[in-house]
UniProtKB/TrEMBL annotation:
The lineage of its organism: Bacteria, Pseudomonadati, Bacteroidota, Flavobacteriia, Flavobacteriales. InterPro entries: 23S_rRNA-intervening_sequence (IPR012657), 23S_rRNA_IVS_sf (IPR036583). Pfam families: 23S_rRNA_IVP (PF05635). SUPFAM superfamilies: IVS-encoded protein-like. It comes from Flavobacterium frigidimaris. It comes from the Bacteria. This is Four helix bundle protein.
Length: 122
């Protein structure tokens, strides 16, 4: 029996990151930035949703495909955090924890992909 996506540490970290991002997006400097908030929220939700969706196929090749999409969404979140700082919606201190967690999640996804690649029958 395979693990359920809810048990994956990388999924749990994705939920933590989503909470941080949603909290940040509720701050005053973002209140009128509807398009920006929508885009970063879509990207953050994509991280966990792709982990969940890929795991349901019970097929390592499919899971790898979805983990790669999740990894791309993680980079998008990181890019938008940088942009939010550069546009002076927030400062480095306000995004640092989210930024660091997004890097950690990206590395975890890479390691998960490498592991799954060793389990694929050639």
């Amino acid at each position: 029996m395979t693990k359920s996506f809810e048990e994956f540490e990388v999924y749990k970290k994705g939920i933590q990151l989503a909470k941080l991002i949603f909290t940040l997006m509720n701050s005053k400097p973002f209140e009128r930035e509807f398009g920006f908030k929508d885009q970063i929220k879509r990207a953050i939700v994509s991280i966990t949703n792709n982990i969940a969706e890929g795991s349901e196929y019970n097929n390592n090749k499919q899971l790898i495909r979805y983990l790669k999409i999740s990894k791309g969404s993680c980079a998008e979140v990181r890019s938008m955090l940088i942009l939010s700082r550069e546009l002076q919606f927030c400062n480095q201190l306000e995004i640092q924890k989210s930024y660091d967690l997004s890097i950690e999640i990206s590395q975890n996804l890479s390691n998960f992909i490498k592991y799954l690649n060793t389990k694929i029958d050639v």
